[in-house]
Write a structure and sequence with these properties.
- It is a single chain.
- The chain has nine helices and six strands.
- The protein is an alpha/beta fold.
- The chain has a single domain, classed as Undecaprenyl pyrophosphate synthetase.
- A six-stranded parallel beta sheet has the order 3-4-2-1-5-6, with helices on both faces.
- Strand 3, helix 5 and strand 4 form a beta-alpha-beta unit.
- Helix 1 packs parallel to helix 9, helix 3 packs parallel to helix 4 and helix 4 packs parallel to helix 5.
Length: 253
């Protein structure tokens, strides 16, 4: 660990002490934004170095979440829109994602793929599925790895899954329409069985969700951070928790 400014350390400790009086979110979603811009502003030769640095930062974040008692973390690594990038840009990114998921598995985190795996290259889909199978049922933090993810796609997939499940039971469209409610769709989302995210964090200064956890975020609190993802610090995470804890959450209004 490098040298830390004593004033910075004291400020971090002050925020941490205040968190004792606040509620900690069970589920935190993070849009890991700014890897490319961080690489460019840092004078690095390749944006891939920014993605690598961003991947390393994930493991710091998971440690921080584990420390404070967060139960579920959803990490948006690659959107469905990103799958349309040129091969020379997409292939190195997919390799970094595969390496990251392999490391998550090796370090014992509970990996849960979140996204349209059928849209991914076979190797990436296989790494995600094998990590999920190897870590299924473990205790501790659940890490939703959102790869090939889009909020609208997730809802469409949930409805499709619901229709197929009901058709297999012999339910007619008319019967389903009469009793369909929100819970029926929720039971077929990628994150089924998990609490909805109470806190969503986006780095890099962009103030939009871009469809991230579109269904699940109906009552989420949002925290937008100016710092690029690879430069995200523990104090930035603690600030997000402080902001969340200090809010008077008014559901439905």
């Amino acid at each position: 660990m490098g040298f830390r400014d004593p004033l910075y350390w004291l400020y971090e400790r002050r925020i941490e002490r205040r968190l004792g009086s606040y509620e900690i979110p069970r589920h935190v979603g993070v849009i890991l934004d700014g890897n490319r811009r961080w690489a460019k502003t840092s004078g690095l030769a390749s944006v891939d170095q920014g993605h690598r640095a961003g991947a390393d930062k994930i493991f710091e974040l998971l440690g921080w979440c584990d420390e404070v008692g967060v139960q579920v973390v959803t990490l948006w690594l690659l959107s469905t829109d990103n799958l349309g990038r040129p091969p020379e840009e997409l292939e190195p990114l997919l390799q970094i994602i595969e390496d990251t998921v392999t490391r998550l598995r090796r370090e014992g985190w509970n990996v849960n793929p979140v996204g349209a795996l059928d849209l991914l290259p076979d190797s990436t889909g296989r790494v995600l599925k094998e990590a999920a199978e190897a870590t299924s049922g473990g205790s501790g933090l659940i890490v939703n790895v959102a790869v090939g993810y889009g909020g609208r796609r997730e809802i469409a997939d949930a409805v499709r899954s619901l229709l197929l499940a009901e058709a297999a039971k012999g339910t007619s469209i008319e019967e389903l329409a009469e009793r369909l409610d929100l819970e029926h769709i929720s039971e077929h989302l990628y994150t089924r069985g998990q609490p909805d995210p109470e806190l969503l964090i986006r780095t890099s200064g962009e103030q939009r969700l871009s469809g991230f956890l579109l269904w699940q975020s109906a009552h989420s609190e949002f925290y937008f951070c100016e710092v690029f993802w690879p430069a995200f610090r523990r104090v930035d995470f603690l600030r997000a928790l402080r902001s969340y804890g200090a809010r008077n959450r008014r559901f439905g209004s």
